[in-house]
């Protein structure tokens, strides 16, 4: 960061890279170490050993639950999954907005409508318990809304979530209409846990900026969803699997990767803005994918090394590895999630992190209001 002495203006690097803009107790990403955590726990170890609901509780309350706390939390959140009657009509019309892979457009529309329909007050005017209740309801509703949007768009009736299924199993059930196998439910659950939060990424920062204005929870979530829909952020898993399709059709992963590099095309699913090591999320998802097996998994593992080699040839001083999106698409495909639902699946988990950040930001009464440096033509003299 550069300080201009004459004006005391802080000039940040492009993209605010490595600029600390807030304190947080939610978690951190250590890019040079290939490590990230939620509260004081390794996120990868949480994904290995805990359920979605346990880690969700951790984000909301700051500690892992005991059995009684978890039971109460599960009972409470499952009561919040049903779609309110007030937005059923909006959901049906929103399902057709955008292209096949743009269901987040519909979710933004419904999420925006939910605020006034449910009487959600601005964060500025709410106490801590009301804010927490608003975020719990929004998080619990997100998978139900997204699955319903997908079903309606496909010409099918929405599936009501079952009280005896966890969030991950219900997600698969509401998409397909069939109760998933334990292996598929657990694989998706591990992916969801791994992607709940990841530092001050674009969508999280967008949510916090809006929360700093005192707007309501749904306004902040809509802003996060808008940032998340971009192909450089949440929209990457399906594009990474599209690239794998191209590799399989080409027949030679290394040659394909070299062609992409030569043509200066970005290879989706590789490289990361923070990690300088292998992405820890990708490492666990590779294990999950191998446990599921199948031809797509085999193709992905072979292609990964070829792409890493091609990128190393082109950028020997800046190696790039598979990021979370590469194996995320492979795992979701193996579990029967259609490609148009890859980014929505990511949104199901990230809503947990967004809401935690919204609640944390709401405790501050300071508006986030940076400045821009004007570089256009000089204004006319007065």
Automatic annotation (TrEMBL):
<dbReference type="InterPro" id="IPR002020">
    <property type="entry name" value="Citrate_synthase"/>
</dbReference>
<keyword id="KW-0808">Transferase</keyword>
<protein>
    <recommendedName>
        <fullName>Citrate synthase</fullName>
    </recommendedName>
</protein>
<dbReference type="GO" id="GO:0036440">
    <property type="term" value="F:citrate synthase activity"/>
</dbReference>
<dbReference type="GO" id="GO:0005829">
    <property type="term" value="C:cytosol"/>
</dbReference>
<dbReference type="Pfam" id="PF00285">
    <property type="entry name" value="Citrate_synt"/>
</dbReference>
<dbReference type="InterPro" id="IPR036969">
    <property type="entry name" value="Citrate_synthase_sf"/>
</dbReference>
<dbReference type="InterPro" id="IPR019810">
    <property type="entry name" value="Citrate_synthase_AS"/>
</dbReference>
<dbReference type="InterPro" id="IPR016142">
    <property type="entry name" value="Citrate_synth-like_lrg_a-sub"/>
</dbReference>
<dbReference type="GO" id="GO:0006099">
    <property type="term" value="P:tricarboxylic acid cycle"/>
</dbReference>
<keyword id="KW-0732">Signal</keyword>
<comment type="pathway">
    <text>Carbohydrate metabolism; tricarboxylic acid cycle.</text>
</comment>
<dbReference type="InterPro" id="IPR016143">
    <property type="entry name" value="Citrate_synth-like_sm_a-sub"/>
</dbReference>
<feature type="active site">
    <location>
        <position position="272"/>
    </location>
</feature>
<feature type="active site">
    <location>
        <position position="325"/>
    </location>
</feature>
<feature type="signal peptide">
    <location>
        <begin position="1"/>
        <end position="17"/>
    </location>
</feature>
<dbReference type="GO" id="GO:0005975">
    <property type="term" value="P:carbohydrate metabolic process"/>
</dbReference>
<dbReference type="InterPro" id="IPR024176">
    <property type="entry name" value="Citrate_synthase_bac-typ"/>
</dbReference>
<comment type="similarity">
    <text>Belongs to the citrate synthase family.</text>
</comment>
